[in-house]
Amino acid sequence: MSDANAKTWAGPLQGIRVLDFTRVLAGPAATMALADLGAEVLKIEPPGTGDDTRTFPPFRDEVSHYFISGNRGKKSIVIDLKTEAGVALAKDLAAQCDIVVENYRPGVMDRLGLGYETLSALNPRLIYCAISGFGMTGPLRDKPSFDIVVQALSGALSVNGEPGGLPTKLGIPLGDLVGGINGPIAILAALHERSVTGRGRLIDVSLLDGLVGMLGYLAQLAFFTGEDPKPQGSQHPNLVPYGVFPASDGSIIIACLTNAFWARICKALGMDEQMLDPRFDTLQKRRDQRALVNEMISERTRQKTVAELEALLSEHQVPNAPILGIREALAQPQAVARELVVETEHAVLGRIPIVNRPIRFPGDPQPVPTAPPVLGQHTDEILGEVLGLSAERIAQLRDSKVVG
Length: 404
Fold this sequence. Notes:
This protein is α/β, with parallel strands linked by helices.
């Protein structure tokens, strides 16, 4: 791809248009991922405050940090879906789109007249992704859901925290963000299917389903042992040493997955005698002697700084890391090299830093993502360019408060 074309290449989903009825986190994360991949995302927002997260503090010049975090690369159109004319506009837009994404509770979009059956009748090629806390079926179908609720009901919260203490929710809102992962996966699969069949389909994404799916080996451990895995803090339930170890000026992560790594750790920390000790020569034995092994490692790590430990462990190819704060993480050399933070132009804030898209396509660079839109920033553009409405008709809709 030439440099000239690279500047205009949105990504592999260029030419795909998404109608975004989502708000807060799970749905916006899904549509932001599609925007990152090059799709044109038209975010429908209600008049007044728009997406709920526009009101979440803290603010800068009345712009919410929360909204900024989940809506890069999108266009905002304000439509009042409580009016017949607003619903008609939404239907017209759906007829011109490839994908619809919504994250209301099941039944809400049907009551608005914008459910899958209605919109697919207008546009049989439409892929309709519904994201909700518990999915379209089951006894919890209509239960309201937030991230911490899904964490609790999935079992994820029960294994997070320090041994013997109260469970602690994950610092990252993974209960919601799992919708931003599974939604796009399902949508991309449906796009492939549509290329064969010519028809779209309905997708049912449950956040609870998604987080249960992320239990991974913990679920299988429960099946095998017949017992619930317990919180281990930063440690691994079956691998030792694995977790946070003290340094003279802080702490460091050390991870030992195999006997090969055990030998490397011992060499790095001057523990040749322990490396040959038959009490510690298998994964099972080290797990059974967890407290003793961890104290042996800690005795050595306490004598060195984090930087000294990093150098030693890295020299011996032992997985390790300092524990970085968010600002440090975003400014570390690896993040800089990968351009994980970029600057973009916001309509109100001017030049602002944002987290960059997480997926790259070597050889075909995408431009810097556009900033999250201010409320209704693209209303006239979308109505004019997508629906072909005249300036006079748009003015009439605005005067009647159907759009804003």
